[in-house]
UniProtKB/TrEMBL annotation:
Coiled coil residues, start to end: none
Name of the protein in question: ABC transporter ATP-binding protein
Entry's localization field: Cell inner membrane
Superkingdom of origin organism: Bacteria
UniProt keyword tRNA processing present: no
Length: 364
């Protein structure tokens, strides 16, 4: 355990009957960080959060909060409030009554409650709705009430389970900023479960990627994006081109890898040296490939491909291509970079990249 760890999952397993929802898990949540837990549906992210909140008991292992084992500590004694996707506000109570609820439960006197509730209504910019029934608020306003209700006890950690998924796209982006700023200003540890890469990557200091009950990778967004550890992570990020093959030559710092799409030069960014004949999978992210009409210069990698389609993604476009060996290729480029290219379906184009742009998956 490091000095910075607020929460430690130590060999934690969660089974529901014969189903293993979370496989043996070891990880730490650092004090004051914004940690996102991300993965597709059913991968065990909510179960992980619920174990931390005390809503599920681990089948094995130990969870420690600030150095103390909390496996057997009931939810109400943990001070790990949670904001839900459904928000779970009390529908017949006013905004003020919702926010002061947990202070009442803790026996805080009337004057103390008023002071704290006023502070959080103000902080979340919902003072003007204090006496309104929560049923009569917009989605964004209800979101702020749910946050105020969880933060009014000033906990050290806040758990959030897909809190923005019910909001429309515009409001979602606004609430992402509200949440990031809030977390930074308060210095509270946020643990945020989401299936959305854009939410996780835009807000979190570190991201945990889970698949089928297992942690595939933990790291900061840049690290994960640039250096995915497994094929699952690379595929999940969706922006990487994946080439699997075997090492056909080793030359100082670079290796050649033969794949069904051709032979490519890779300057491995990993510590372990690769030997001839060894299997290797590398990825090249879509923003690191270059598109052009000519084959690449010596020392670069290139593959001739035909255009399958173009997808408009705001400031950039994703060009879908098919290369030799029927390999799927994606290139993510700004509109300026694409101006002089023929991108009609079926058009031939050269895709190229530098040996340093490839990253070998260390866990394949
Ligand atoms: P989603 O994004 O769909 O919420 P998730 O990643 O949060 O998915 P979990 O809710 O943690 O996934 O579920 C992990 C696995 O455990 C799933 O297969 C789920 O069906 C199962 N599971 C979760 N809760 C229970 C329960 N109370 N009883 C039985 N199985 C459960």
């Amino acid at each position: 355990m490091t000095d910075k760890a607020l929460v430690v999952f130590d060999g934690v397993v969660k089974r529901f009957g014969s189903l293993v929802a979370v496989e043996k898990t070891d990880f730490e949540i650092r004090k004051g960080e914004f940690l996102a837990i991300m993965g597709s549906s059913g991968c065990g992210k909510t179960t992980t959060l619920r174990m931390l909140a005390g809503l599920e008991a681990p089948s094995e292992g130990e969870i420690r909060l600030a150095g103390k084992r909390i496996n057997d500590l009931p939810t109400w004694r943990r001070d790990t409030p949670m904001v839900w996707q459904s928000l779970a506000l009390f529908p017949f109570l006013t905004v003020r009554e919702n926010v002061e609820f947990s202070l009442r439960m803790r026996g805080v006197d009337k004057a103390g409650r008023r002071k704290r509730v006023d502070k959080w209504l103000e902080r979340m910019q919902i003072t003007e709705f204090a006496d309104r029934n929560v049923a009569h608020l917009s989605g964004g306003q209800r979101q702020r009430v749910a946050l105020a209700r969880s933060l009014v006890t000033e906990p050290e950690i806040l758990l959030l389970d897909e809190p923005l998924s019910a909001l429309d796209a515009h409001l979602k982006v606004r609430m992402q900023t509200v949440l990031s700023n809030l977390q930074r200003e308060l210095g509270i540890t946020f643990v945020y479960v989401t299936h959305s890469q854009s939410e996780a990557f835009s807000m979190a200091d570190r991201v945990v990627i889970m698949s089928r009950g297992r942690i595939e990778q933990i790291g900061n967004p840049q690290e994960i994006y640039r250096a995915p550890r497994t094929r699952f992570v690379a595929e999940f990020l969706g922006s990487s081109n994946i080439f699997a093959g075997s090492v056909s030559g080793v030359n100082g710092r670079t290796v050649k890898i033969a794949t069904p799409a051709g032979e490519f030069i890779v300057a491995p960014d990993m510590v372990k040296p690769l030997a001839k004949g060894e299997r290797a999978t590398f990825v090249v992210s879509g923003d690191r490939v270059h598109l052009g009409c000519e084959p690449p210069a010596d020392g670069y990698n290139g593959i001739e491909a035909s255009v399958v389609g173009e997808e408009f993604v705001g400031a950039t476009a994703v060009i879908h291509l098919e290369g030799t060996g029927r390999i799927e290729i994606k290139a993510q480029k700004s509109h300026d970079e694409l101006e002089h290219l023929n991108l009609s379906p079926g058009a031939k184009i050269w895709v190229s990249w530098r040996p340093e742009a490839a990253h070998i998956l260390p866990c394949e």
